[in-house]
Write a structure and sequence with these properties.
The protein is globular. It is built from 20 helices and twelve strands. With about 500 residues, the chain is an alpha+beta fold. α13 crosses α15 (about 295-325) and α15 packs across α18. It has helices spanning about 10-20, 25-50, 70-75, 80-90, 110-115, 125-135, 145-160, 160-180, 190-210, 210-215, 220-230, 235, 245-270, 280-285, 295-325, 330-340, 350-355, 360-370, 400-405, 450-465; strands at about 90-95, 100-105, 120-125, 185-190, 375-380, 385, 390, 395-400, 465-470, 480, 485-490, 490-495. It binds protoporphyrin IX containing FE.
Length: about 500
Protein backbone atom coordinates (compact mmCIF):
# COMPACT_ATOMS: atom_id res chain seq x y z
CA UNK A 1 0.00 0.00 0.00
CA UNK A 2 0.88 3.66 -0.30
CA UNK A 3 3.03 3.23 2.60
CA UNK A 4 4.35 0.24 3.81
CA UNK A 5 3.86 -3.48 3.99
CA UNK A 6 7.45 -2.80 4.18
CA UNK A 7 9.50 -4.14 6.70
CA UNK A 8 7.86 -7.30 7.77
CA UNK A 9 10.23 -9.37 5.78
CA UNK A 10 13.43 -7.94 7.05
CA UNK A 11 14.62 -11.43 7.60
CA UNK A 12 13.92 -12.28 3.97
CA UNK A 13 16.17 -9.43 3.04
CA UNK A 14 18.73 -10.94 5.22
CA UNK A 15 18.33 -14.28 3.58
CA UNK A 16 18.77 -12.58 0.22
CA UNK A 17 21.76 -10.67 1.41
CA UNK A 18 23.54 -13.62 2.86
CA UNK A 19 22.74 -15.68 -0.20
CA UNK A 20 24.31 -13.14 -2.48
CA UNK A 21 27.25 -12.37 -0.23
CA UNK A 22 29.73 -14.62 -1.89
CA UNK A 23 29.18 -13.83 -5.46
CA UNK A 24 29.16 -10.16 -6.13
CA UNK A 25 30.82 -6.91 -5.48
CA UNK A 26 27.91 -5.48 -3.59
CA UNK A 27 28.77 -7.94 -0.87
CA UNK A 28 31.66 -5.80 0.28
CA UNK A 29 29.44 -2.80 0.63
CA UNK A 30 26.76 -4.88 2.29
CA UNK A 31 29.24 -6.33 4.72
CA UNK A 32 30.43 -2.82 5.56
CA UNK A 33 26.85 -1.70 6.17
CA UNK A 34 26.18 -4.69 8.37
CA UNK A 35 29.23 -3.89 10.44
CA UNK A 36 28.19 -0.27 10.75
CA UNK A 37 24.68 -1.26 11.72
CA UNK A 38 26.03 -3.74 14.25
CA UNK A 39 28.26 -1.14 15.88
CA UNK A 40 25.33 1.24 16.07
CA UNK A 41 23.26 -1.50 17.58
CA UNK A 42 25.81 -2.42 20.21
CA UNK A 43 26.27 1.17 21.30
CA UNK A 44 22.51 1.55 21.51
CA UNK A 45 22.26 -1.56 23.68
CA UNK A 46 24.93 -0.19 26.00
CA UNK A 47 23.13 3.12 26.24
CA UNK A 48 19.84 1.40 26.94
CA UNK A 49 21.28 -0.56 29.83
CA UNK A 50 22.59 2.51 31.54
CA UNK A 51 19.36 4.47 31.60
CA UNK A 52 15.89 4.34 33.06
CA UNK A 53 16.32 1.47 35.50
CA UNK A 54 13.06 2.30 37.27
CA UNK A 55 10.97 2.01 34.09
CA UNK A 56 9.15 -1.20 33.37
CA UNK A 57 9.85 -2.02 29.76
CA UNK A 58 7.65 -4.48 27.83
CA UNK A 59 8.68 -8.14 28.15
CA UNK A 60 11.60 -8.75 25.82
CA UNK A 61 11.85 -11.98 23.84
CA UNK A 62 15.46 -13.03 24.25
CA UNK A 63 17.52 -14.28 21.35
CA UNK A 64 20.89 -15.93 21.29
CA UNK A 65 21.70 -14.53 17.86
CA UNK A 66 23.19 -11.04 18.17
CA UNK A 67 22.00 -8.34 15.76
CA UNK A 68 19.87 -10.64 13.56
CA UNK A 69 17.80 -11.59 16.58
CA UNK A 70 14.50 -13.19 15.64
CA UNK A 71 14.68 -12.25 11.98
CA UNK A 72 14.82 -15.82 10.75
CA UNK A 73 11.95 -17.22 12.81
CA UNK A 74 9.85 -14.14 12.08
CA UNK A 75 10.60 -14.23 8.38
CA UNK A 76 9.63 -17.86 8.10
CA UNK A 77 6.27 -17.47 9.72
CA UNK A 78 5.55 -14.03 11.15
CA UNK A 79 1.97 -14.70 12.21
CA UNK A 80 2.83 -17.87 14.08
CA UNK A 81 5.75 -16.08 15.73
CA UNK A 82 3.50 -13.26 16.94
CA UNK A 83 0.71 -15.58 18.09
CA UNK A 84 3.11 -17.66 20.14
CA UNK A 85 4.58 -14.53 21.67
CA UNK A 86 1.08 -13.32 22.51
CA UNK A 87 0.32 -16.55 24.35
CA UNK A 88 3.56 -16.40 26.24
CA UNK A 89 4.05 -12.67 26.96
CA UNK A 90 0.64 -11.06 26.56
CA UNK A 91 -0.48 -8.24 24.26
CA UNK A 92 2.66 -6.07 24.47
CA UNK A 93 6.19 -7.38 23.95
CA UNK A 94 9.46 -6.46 22.27
CA UNK A 95 12.08 -8.29 20.26
CA UNK A 96 15.02 -7.52 18.04
CA UNK A 97 15.46 -8.11 14.32
CA UNK A 98 18.37 -6.89 12.25
CA UNK A 99 19.46 -4.47 14.95
CA UNK A 100 16.06 -2.84 15.39
CA UNK A 101 13.75 -3.32 18.34
CA UNK A 102 10.10 -3.93 17.56
CA UNK A 103 7.31 -3.62 20.08
CA UNK A 104 4.03 -5.19 19.02
CA UNK A 105 0.68 -4.10 20.41
CA UNK A 106 -1.65 -7.05 19.85
CA UNK A 107 -5.39 -7.10 20.30
CA UNK A 108 -7.88 -4.28 20.15
CA UNK A 109 -7.05 -2.69 23.47
CA UNK A 110 -3.29 -2.52 23.06
CA UNK A 111 -3.70 -1.23 19.48
CA UNK A 112 -5.50 1.83 20.85
CA UNK A 113 -2.14 3.41 21.66
CA UNK A 114 -1.01 3.38 18.04
CA UNK A 115 -4.31 4.34 16.44
CA UNK A 116 -4.99 7.23 18.83
CA UNK A 117 -1.45 8.55 18.91
CA UNK A 118 -0.22 11.85 17.54
CA UNK A 119 2.18 11.62 14.63
CA UNK A 120 4.73 13.59 16.68
CA UNK A 121 4.82 10.77 19.25
CA UNK A 122 4.44 7.66 17.11
CA UNK A 123 5.81 8.75 13.79
CA UNK A 124 5.09 7.23 10.38
CA UNK A 125 7.63 9.15 8.26
CA UNK A 126 10.54 7.85 10.32
CA UNK A 127 9.74 4.29 9.30
CA UNK A 128 8.11 4.66 5.87
CA UNK A 129 9.80 7.60 4.17
CA UNK A 130 13.03 5.93 3.16
CA UNK A 131 10.99 3.50 1.10
CA UNK A 132 8.22 5.71 -0.20
CA UNK A 133 10.01 8.98 -0.96
CA UNK A 134 12.28 7.57 -3.72
CA UNK A 135 9.19 5.94 -5.28
CA UNK A 136 6.56 8.70 -5.00
CA UNK A 137 9.06 11.56 -5.06
CA UNK A 138 9.45 14.68 -2.97
CA UNK A 139 6.59 16.88 -1.84
CA UNK A 140 4.01 14.20 -1.08
CA UNK A 141 3.07 11.55 1.49
CA UNK A 142 5.83 10.83 4.01
CA UNK A 143 8.17 13.43 2.54
CA UNK A 144 6.06 16.29 3.87
CA UNK A 145 5.01 17.20 7.42
CA UNK A 146 1.99 15.11 8.33
CA UNK A 147 -0.50 18.04 8.43
CA UNK A 148 0.31 18.63 4.74
CA UNK A 149 -0.11 14.94 3.90
CA UNK A 150 -3.44 15.03 5.70
CA UNK A 151 -4.52 17.85 3.37
CA UNK A 152 -3.35 15.81 0.39
CA UNK A 153 -5.34 12.81 1.62
CA UNK A 154 -8.40 15.03 1.85
CA UNK A 155 -7.96 16.11 -1.78
CA UNK A 156 -7.67 12.47 -2.86
CA UNK A 157 -10.73 11.60 -0.83
CA UNK A 158 -12.69 14.34 -2.62
CA UNK A 159 -11.79 12.67 -5.91
CA UNK A 160 -12.90 9.26 -4.70
CA UNK A 161 -16.58 10.17 -4.74
CA UNK A 162 -19.80 8.42 -5.74
CA UNK A 163 -20.14 10.22 -9.05
CA UNK A 164 -16.72 8.93 -10.02
CA UNK A 165 -17.41 5.44 -8.65
CA UNK A 166 -20.45 5.22 -10.94
CA UNK A 167 -18.12 5.65 -13.89
CA UNK A 168 -15.54 3.33 -12.38
CA UNK A 169 -17.98 0.40 -12.25
CA UNK A 170 -18.51 0.59 -16.01
CA UNK A 171 -14.80 0.99 -16.74
CA UNK A 172 -13.81 -1.92 -14.49
CA UNK A 173 -16.48 -4.24 -15.87
CA UNK A 174 -15.36 -3.51 -19.44
CA UNK A 175 -11.65 -3.95 -18.63
CA UNK A 176 -12.37 -7.25 -16.84
CA UNK A 177 -14.41 -8.70 -19.70
CA UNK A 178 -11.79 -7.67 -22.19
CA UNK A 179 -8.85 -8.93 -20.14
CA UNK A 180 -10.35 -12.37 -19.46
CA UNK A 181 -11.18 -12.95 -23.08
CA UNK A 182 -7.74 -14.54 -23.33
CA UNK A 183 -8.73 -17.19 -20.79
CA UNK A 184 -11.13 -18.85 -23.22
CA UNK A 185 -13.81 -21.31 -22.14
CA UNK A 186 -11.96 -23.40 -19.61
CA UNK A 187 -8.54 -24.17 -18.24
CA UNK A 188 -6.14 -23.72 -15.37
CA UNK A 189 -4.36 -20.41 -14.99
CA UNK A 190 -2.47 -18.22 -12.56
CA UNK A 191 -5.24 -16.12 -11.05
CA UNK A 192 -3.01 -13.77 -9.10
CA UNK A 193 -0.93 -12.87 -12.12
CA UNK A 194 -4.04 -12.17 -14.16
CA UNK A 195 -5.61 -10.01 -11.46
CA UNK A 196 -2.37 -8.07 -10.98
CA UNK A 197 -2.24 -7.26 -14.68
CA UNK A 198 -5.93 -6.41 -14.79
CA UNK A 199 -5.75 -4.13 -11.77
CA UNK A 200 -2.92 -2.03 -13.20
CA UNK A 201 -5.26 -1.36 -16.11
CA UNK A 202 -8.36 -0.64 -14.03
CA UNK A 203 -6.48 1.45 -11.49
CA UNK A 204 -4.85 3.44 -14.26
CA UNK A 205 -8.20 4.07 -16.00
CA UNK A 206 -10.02 4.99 -12.83
CA UNK A 207 -7.37 6.79 -10.82
CA UNK A 208 -5.20 8.37 -13.54
CA UNK A 209 -7.70 9.05 -16.29
CA UNK A 210 -8.09 8.10 -19.91
CA UNK A 211 -4.98 9.87 -21.23
CA UNK A 212 -2.57 8.00 -18.99
CA UNK A 213 -4.49 4.73 -19.44
CA UNK A 214 -4.17 5.08 -23.22
CA UNK A 215 -0.40 5.35 -22.87
CA UNK A 216 -0.14 2.17 -20.81
CA UNK A 217 1.85 -0.21 -22.95
CA UNK A 218 4.43 -2.83 -22.07
CA UNK A 219 7.20 -0.27 -21.71
CA UNK A 220 5.24 1.79 -19.22
CA UNK A 221 4.21 -1.36 -17.35
CA UNK A 222 7.91 -2.20 -17.06
CA UNK A 223 8.58 1.27 -15.63
CA UNK A 224 5.89 0.67 -13.00
CA UNK A 225 7.49 -2.66 -12.18
CA UNK A 226 10.94 -1.08 -11.80
CA UNK A 227 9.49 1.64 -9.62
CA UNK A 228 7.67 -0.91 -7.56
CA UNK A 229 10.97 -2.75 -7.14
CA UNK A 230 11.87 0.19 -4.90
CA UNK A 231 9.67 -1.32 -2.20
CA UNK A 232 12.30 -3.81 -1.28
CA UNK A 233 13.92 -5.03 1.86
CA UNK A 234 17.19 -3.64 0.56
CA UNK A 235 15.71 -0.16 0.30
CA UNK A 236 14.39 -0.46 3.81
CA UNK A 237 17.57 -1.61 5.43
CA UNK A 238 20.53 -0.36 3.42
CA UNK A 239 21.81 3.18 3.00
CA UNK A 240 20.21 4.95 0.05
CA UNK A 241 23.52 6.05 -1.49
CA UNK A 242 24.59 2.48 -2.23
CA UNK A 243 24.99 1.92 -5.98
CA UNK A 244 22.60 -1.03 -6.13
CA UNK A 245 21.13 -1.78 -9.58
CA UNK A 246 17.62 -1.95 -8.16
CA UNK A 247 18.00 1.55 -6.68
CA UNK A 248 19.21 2.93 -10.00
CA UNK A 249 16.38 1.26 -11.90
CA UNK A 250 13.87 2.66 -9.42
CA UNK A 251 15.24 6.19 -9.76
CA UNK A 252 15.32 6.06 -13.54
CA UNK A 253 11.76 4.69 -13.69
CA UNK A 254 10.68 7.44 -11.31
CA UNK A 255 12.07 10.15 -13.55
CA UNK A 256 10.57 8.67 -16.71
CA UNK A 257 7.10 8.17 -15.24
CA UNK A 258 7.13 11.67 -13.80
CA UNK A 259 7.95 13.03 -17.26
CA UNK A 260 5.05 11.13 -18.82
CA UNK A 261 2.69 12.40 -16.14
CA UNK A 262 3.97 15.99 -16.42
CA UNK A 263 3.07 16.05 -20.10
CA UNK A 264 -0.43 14.75 -19.45
CA UNK A 265 -1.00 17.19 -16.58
CA UNK A 266 0.19 20.15 -18.66
CA UNK A 267 -1.97 19.13 -21.60
CA UNK A 268 -4.99 18.88 -19.33
CA UNK A 269 -4.24 22.29 -17.81
CA UNK A 270 -4.00 23.85 -21.27
CA UNK A 271 -7.06 22.24 -22.81
CA UNK A 272 -10.32 23.95 -21.99
CA UNK A 273 -11.97 20.54 -21.65
CA UNK A 274 -13.20 19.86 -18.11
CA UNK A 275 -13.16 16.13 -17.68
CA UNK A 276 -14.76 15.03 -14.44
CA UNK A 277 -12.22 12.62 -13.00
CA UNK A 278 -9.64 12.29 -10.24
CA UNK A 279 -6.86 13.95 -12.22
CA UNK A 280 -9.11 16.99 -12.69
CA UNK A 281 -9.97 16.96 -8.98
CA UNK A 282 -6.26 17.18 -8.19
CA UNK A 283 -5.63 19.91 -10.76
CA UNK A 284 -8.44 21.99 -9.25
CA UNK A 285 -7.59 21.24 -5.60
CA UNK A 286 -6.04 23.79 -3.24
CA UNK A 287 -4.46 23.64 0.19
CA UNK A 288 -6.15 25.48 3.05
CA UNK A 289 -3.96 28.52 2.35
CA UNK A 290 -5.23 28.67 -1.24
CA UNK A 291 -2.13 27.26 -2.96
CA UNK A 292 -2.90 24.79 -5.74
CA UNK A 293 -0.96 21.54 -6.14
CA UNK A 294 2.02 21.84 -8.46
CA UNK A 295 2.72 19.33 -11.24
CA UNK A 296 5.28 17.49 -9.14
CA UNK A 297 2.84 16.99 -6.29
CA UNK A 298 0.09 15.82 -8.64
CA UNK A 299 2.42 13.37 -10.38
CA UNK A 300 3.63 12.05 -7.01
CA UNK A 301 0.06 11.56 -5.85
CA UNK A 302 -0.79 9.70 -9.07
CA UNK A 303 2.10 7.32 -8.50
CA UNK A 304 1.01 6.86 -4.90
CA UNK A 305 -2.59 6.15 -5.89
CA UNK A 306 -1.58 3.49 -8.36
CA UNK A 307 0.83 1.64 -6.11
CA UNK A 308 -1.39 1.95 -3.02
CA UNK A 309 -4.24 0.30 -4.83
CA UNK A 310 -2.31 -2.22 -6.86
CA UNK A 311 -0.89 -4.93 -4.59
CA UNK A 312 -3.47 -4.50 -1.88
CA UNK A 313 -6.38 -5.03 -4.29
CA UNK A 314 -4.75 -7.71 -6.45
CA UNK A 315 -3.78 -9.97 -3.54
CA UNK A 316 -7.16 -9.49 -1.88
CA UNK A 317 -9.01 -10.32 -5.12
CA UNK A 318 -6.86 -13.40 -5.69
CA UNK A 319 -7.38 -14.75 -2.17
CA UNK A 320 -11.11 -14.11 -2.50
CA UNK A 321 -11.14 -16.22 -5.66
CA UNK A 322 -9.56 -19.15 -3.85
CA UNK A 323 -11.93 -18.89 -0.88
CA UNK A 324 -14.88 -18.99 -3.31
CA UNK A 325 -13.37 -21.85 -5.31
CA UNK A 326 -12.90 -23.85 -2.11
CA UNK A 327 -16.51 -23.37 -0.97
CA UNK A 328 -18.62 -24.23 -4.01
CA UNK A 329 -21.93 -23.78 -2.20
CA UNK A 330 -20.93 -20.26 -1.26
CA UNK A 331 -19.82 -19.55 -4.82
CA UNK A 332 -23.22 -20.69 -6.11
CA UNK A 333 -24.98 -18.46 -3.60
CA UNK A 334 -22.89 -15.50 -4.80
CA UNK A 335 -23.83 -16.27 -8.39
CA UNK A 336 -27.50 -16.58 -7.41
CA UNK A 337 -27.19 -13.20 -5.72
CA UNK A 338 -26.03 -11.68 -9.02
CA UNK A 339 -29.27 -12.84 -10.63
CA UNK A 340 -31.46 -11.92 -7.69
CA UNK A 341 -30.08 -8.39 -7.35
CA UNK A 342 -29.31 -7.46 -10.93
CA UNK A 343 -31.91 -9.47 -12.85
CA UNK A 344 -31.98 -12.91 -14.44
CA UNK A 345 -30.55 -11.65 -17.71
CA UNK A 346 -27.52 -10.20 -15.88
CA UNK A 347 -27.40 -6.75 -17.48
CA UNK A 348 -24.29 -4.56 -17.21
CA UNK A 349 -23.40 -3.76 -13.61
CA UNK A 350 -24.12 -0.46 -12.00
CA UNK A 351 -23.06 1.16 -8.75
CA UNK A 352 -26.46 0.93 -7.05
CA UNK A 353 -26.75 -2.80 -7.66
CA UNK A 354 -23.21 -3.27 -6.45
CA UNK A 355 -24.22 -1.86 -3.07
CA UNK A 356 -27.00 -4.48 -2.79
CA UNK A 357 -24.66 -7.42 -3.37
CA UNK A 358 -24.39 -7.97 0.34
CA UNK A 359 -23.23 -11.58 0.33
CA UNK A 360 -20.43 -10.71 -2.07
CA UNK A 361 -19.57 -7.80 0.19
CA UNK A 362 -19.38 -10.04 3.26
CA UNK A 363 -17.14 -12.44 1.32
CA UNK A 364 -14.78 -9.56 0.62
CA UNK A 365 -14.94 -8.45 4.22
CA UNK A 366 -14.11 -11.97 5.38
CA UNK A 367 -11.25 -12.22 2.87
CA UNK A 368 -9.81 -9.02 4.33
CA UNK A 369 -10.13 -10.55 7.79
CA UNK A 370 -8.13 -13.68 7.03
CA UNK A 371 -5.76 -12.17 4.46
CA UNK A 372 -5.39 -8.45 5.17
CA UNK A 373 -2.76 -7.31 2.66
CA UNK A 374 -1.03 -5.00 5.13
CA UNK A 375 0.06 -7.37 7.81
CA UNK A 376 1.75 -4.75 9.99
CA UNK A 377 1.50 -1.00 10.51
CA UNK A 378 4.54 0.63 12.03
CA UNK A 379 5.53 3.81 13.82
CA UNK A 380 8.71 5.10 15.40
CA UNK A 381 8.44 5.99 19.09
CA UNK A 382 9.73 9.58 19.28
CA UNK A 383 8.68 9.94 22.90
CA UNK A 384 8.24 7.30 25.63
CA UNK A 385 4.85 5.60 25.33
CA UNK A 386 2.75 3.68 27.82
CA UNK A 387 0.85 0.49 26.97
CA UNK A 388 -0.50 -2.17 29.31
CA UNK A 389 1.49 -0.60 32.16
CA UNK A 390 4.80 -0.81 30.31
CA UNK A 391 6.96 2.03 29.10
CA UNK A 392 7.97 1.76 25.46
CA UNK A 393 11.21 3.70 25.08
CA UNK A 394 12.11 6.17 22.34
CA UNK A 395 13.51 4.41 19.28
CA UNK A 396 11.31 1.33 19.35
CA UNK A 397 9.38 0.53 16.18
CA UNK A 398 5.86 0.21 17.46
CA UNK A 399 3.64 -2.16 15.46
CA UNK A 400 0.04 -3.29 15.14
CA UNK A 401 -0.78 -6.34 13.07
CA UNK A 402 -4.23 -6.54 11.46
CA UNK A 403 -3.56 -10.19 10.62
CA UNK A 404 -3.07 -11.13 14.26
CA UNK A 405 -5.93 -8.96 15.55
CA UNK A 406 -8.24 -10.51 12.95
CA UNK A 407 -7.75 -14.02 14.29
CA UNK A 408 -7.10 -13.57 17.99
CA UNK A 409 -8.61 -16.55 19.78
CA UNK A 410 -10.00 -14.36 22.59
CA UNK A 411 -12.03 -12.37 20.07
CA UNK A 412 -13.07 -14.52 17.14
CA UNK A 413 -15.19 -17.67 17.22
CA UNK A 414 -14.02 -20.35 14.78
CA UNK A 415 -11.32 -17.91 14.00
CA UNK A 416 -9.73 -19.74 11.07
CA UNK A 417 -13.00 -20.51 9.27
CA UNK A 418 -13.94 -18.49 6.21
CA UNK A 419 -17.48 -17.61 7.22
CA UNK A 420 -19.00 -14.47 5.71
CA UNK A 421 -22.13 -14.94 7.80
CA UNK A 422 -20.26 -14.25 11.04
CA UNK A 423 -20.94 -10.54 10.54
CA UNK A 424 -24.69 -11.17 10.63
CA UNK A 425 -24.57 -12.76 14.06
CA UNK A 426 -23.63 -11.38 17.43
CA UNK A 427 -19.89 -11.48 17.68
CA UNK A 428 -17.34 -10.33 20.17
CA UNK A 429 -15.26 -8.51 17.59
CA UNK A 430 -18.08 -6.07 16.84
CA UNK A 431 -17.67 -4.66 20.35
CA UNK A 432 -13.92 -4.23 20.11
CA UNK A 433 -12.90 -1.10 18.31
CA UNK A 434 -9.70 -2.35 16.70
CA UNK A 435 -10.39 -6.08 16.36
CA UNK A 436 -10.97 -5.61 12.61
CA UNK A 437 -8.65 -3.05 11.02
CA UNK A 438 -7.70 -4.05 7.43
CA UNK A 439 -7.65 -0.35 6.49
CA UNK A 440 -6.04 0.92 9.68
CA UNK A 441 -7.57 3.61 11.88
CA UNK A 442 -6.89 7.11 13.11
CA UNK A 443 -4.92 9.78 11.29
CA UNK A 444 -3.19 7.34 8.94
CA UNK A 445 -6.35 5.51 7.97
CA UNK A 446 -6.77 4.40 4.38
CA UNK A 447 -8.69 6.66 2.02
CA UNK A 448 -8.96 3.93 -0.61
CA UNK A 449 -11.41 1.61 1.15
CA UNK A 450 -14.50 2.56 -0.83
CA UNK A 451 -12.66 2.45 -4.13
CA UNK A 452 -11.18 -0.95 -3.23
CA UNK A 453 -14.66 -2.30 -2.46
CA UNK A 454 -16.03 -0.94 -5.74
CA UNK A 455 -13.12 -2.35 -7.70
CA UNK A 456 -13.01 -5.81 -6.15
CA UNK A 457 -16.79 -6.27 -6.10
CA UNK A 458 -17.02 -5.26 -9.76
CA UNK A 459 -14.24 -7.61 -10.78
CA UNK A 460 -15.74 -10.54 -8.87
CA UNK A 461 -19.29 -9.86 -10.06
CA UNK A 462 -17.97 -10.00 -13.61
CA UNK A 463 -15.90 -13.12 -13.03
CA UNK A 464 -18.72 -15.00 -11.26
CA UNK A 465 -20.96 -14.31 -14.23
CA UNK A 466 -18.33 -15.59 -16.66
CA UNK A 467 -16.93 -18.65 -14.93
CA UNK A 468 -17.39 -21.37 -12.41
CA UNK A 469 -14.17 -21.74 -10.36
CA UNK A 470 -12.57 -24.76 -8.75
CA UNK A 471 -9.40 -25.50 -6.85
CA UNK A 472 -6.93 -27.54 -8.87
CA UNK A 473 -7.00 -31.01 -7.32
CA UNK A 474 -8.11 -29.52 -4.02
CA UNK A 475 -5.01 -27.32 -3.66
CA UNK A 476 -5.67 -24.16 -1.65
CA UNK A 477 -2.64 -21.85 -1.90
CA UNK A 478 -0.32 -21.63 1.03
CA UNK A 479 0.89 -18.19 2.09
CA UNK A 480 4.06 -16.80 0.59
CA UNK A 481 5.67 -14.85 3.42
CA UNK A 482 8.70 -13.77 1.43
CA UNK A 483 6.82 -10.96 -0.30
CA UNK A 484 6.05 -7.80 1.59
CA UNK A 485 2.36 -8.43 1.08
CA UNK A 486 1.41 -12.02 1.83
CA UNK A 487 0.62 -13.41 -1.58
CA UNK A 488 -0.81 -16.83 -2.48
CA UNK A 489 1.79 -19.42 -3.37
CA UNK A 490 1.31 -21.17 -6.74
CA UNK A 491 -2.03 -19.43 -7.30
CA UNK A 492 -3.40 -21.52 -10.15
CA UNK A 493 -7.16 -21.88 -10.39
CA UNK A 494 -9.42 -24.06 -12.55
CA UNK A 495 -12.25 -22.33 -14.44
CA UNK A 496 -15.09 -23.25 -16.75
CA UNK A 497 -17.41 -20.95 -18.65
CA UNK A 498 -20.90 -20.76 -17.17
CA UNK A 499 -23.83 -21.77 -19.31
CA UNK A 500 -26.26 -18.87 -19.15
C1 LIG B 1 -7.76 -3.70 -0.27
C2 LIG B 1 -7.22 -2.51 -0.45
C3 LIG B 1 -6.47 -1.71 0.57
C4 LIG B 1 -6.07 -2.03 1.84
C5 LIG B 1 -6.29 -3.33 2.59
C6 LIG B 1 -5.41 -0.86 2.38
C7 LIG B 1 -4.87 -0.79 3.67
C8 LIG B 1 -4.36 0.36 4.23
C9 LIG B 1 -3.87 0.46 5.59
C10 LIG B 1 -3.81 -0.68 6.59
C11 LIG B 1 -3.46 1.75 5.79
C12 LIG B 1 -2.89 2.32 7.09
C13 LIG B 1 -1.40 2.32 7.11
C14 LIG B 1 -0.82 2.75 8.42
O1 LIG B 1 -1.53 3.15 9.35
O2 LIG B 1 0.42 2.70 8.55
C15 LIG B 1 -3.69 2.46 4.56
C16 LIG B 1 -3.41 3.80 4.37
C17 LIG B 1 -3.58 4.46 3.17
N1 LIG B 1 -4.07 3.93 2.00
FE1 LIG B 1 -4.80 2.05 1.75
N2 LIG B 1 -5.41 0.13 1.44
C18 LIG B 1 -6.05 -0.35 0.33
C19 LIG B 1 -6.26 0.34 -0.85
C20 LIG B 1 -5.92 1.64 -1.08
C21 LIG B 1 -6.22 2.36 -2.28
C22 LIG B 1 -6.99 1.80 -3.47
C23 LIG B 1 -5.72 3.63 -2.11
C24 LIG B 1 -5.78 4.80 -3.05
C25 LIG B 1 -6.66 4.95 -3.98
C26 LIG B 1 -5.10 3.69 -0.80
C27 LIG B 1 -4.49 4.81 -0.26
C28 LIG B 1 -4.06 4.92 1.05
C29 LIG B 1 -3.55 6.15 1.63
C30 LIG B 1 -3.38 7.49 0.94
C31 LIG B 1 -3.24 5.86 2.98
C32 LIG B 1 -2.75 6.84 4.03
C33 LIG B 1 -1.41 6.57 4.63
C34 LIG B 1 -1.13 7.48 5.81
O3 LIG B 1 -1.90 8.39 6.10
O4 LIG B 1 -0.09 7.31 6.45
N3 LIG B 1 -5.25 2.46 -0.20
N4 LIG B 1 -4.24 1.60 3.63
Amino acid sequence: NMSMHLYQMSSKLFGDTVGRMNDNLTSIVLAASVITLTLGYISKMLLKQSSGKDQKYPPYIPSSIPFLGHAIAFGKSPIEFLEQAYDKYGPVFSFTMVGKTFTYLLGSEAATLLFNSKNEDLNAEDVYSRLTTPVFGKGVAYDVPNPIFLEQKKMLKTGLNIAHFKEHVKIIEAETIEYFQRWGDSGERNLFEALSELIILTASSCLHGKEIRSMLNERVAQLYADLDGGFSHAAWLLPGWLPLPSFRKRDKAHREIKNIFFKVIQKRRRSGEKVDDILQTLIDATYKDGRPLNDNEIAGMLIGLLLAGQHTSSTTSAWMGFFLARDKALQERCYAEQRAVCGDDLPPLNFDQLKDLSLLERCLKETLRLRPPIMTMMRMARSPQTAAGYTIPVGHQVCVSPTVNHRLHDTWAERMEFNPERYLNDNLAAGEKFAYVPFGAGRHRCIGENFAYVQIKTIWSTLLRMYDFDLVDGYFPTINYTTMIHTPHNPVIRYKKRKQ
